[in-house]
Design goal:
about 140 residues; 5-stranded parallel β-sheet
């Protein structure tokens, strides 16, 4: 069973990995660019790493958690690799989480946040993320 963890607990750790599919995969927005000015040291790593790209295993001894932002079909693989590398806590970005990935975290006792966007919780919350956060709060969907 996964240990209990709040969004605040996760975000109290400032050395994080950001796991993306590959360096060639286009993404909407730049989480590293948004989290760095908020005081986070973000190590960008790739699930499908090229020869010179950093991997999860490359940063496992320097990070306190990982934000996983890959296609849902790859989430279980990313979670498996993160757990195998010894990453102690995970955040599965909204839209990438799968039931199997969450179940694996629970089975291995790895605290996990899922179904939410990290940018709606990392303070200060700005721009569209603040608007989205306000809506979630209004409708009782904002996680603790």
């Amino acid at each position: 069973m996964a240990a209990t963890m709040t969004t605040q607990d996760f975000l109290s750790h400032k050395n994080l990995a950001l796991i993306r599919l590959s360096a060639q995969t286009s993404v909407m927005g730049d989480m590293k660019k948004e989290l760095t000015p908020k005081g986070y040291d973000i190590s960008l790593v790739y699930l499908n790493a090229g020869e010179s790209d950093p991997t999860i295993a490359d940063v496992s001894d320097r990070v306190e958690g990982a934000v996983i932002s890959v296609p849902r079909s790859e989430c279980l693989v990313a979670v498996s690799e993160a757990i195998e590398a010894g990453i102690p806590r995970l955040w599965l970005q909204a839209g990438c989480d799968s039931k199997e990935a969450v179940a694996l975290c629970e089975e291995k006792g790895v605290p996990v946040i899922h179904g939410a966007c990290v940018l709606m919780y990392a303070q200060p919350v700005q721009s569209v993320h603040a608007f989205h956060r306000g809506l979630w709060k209004l409708f009782g969907q904002l996680q603790k």
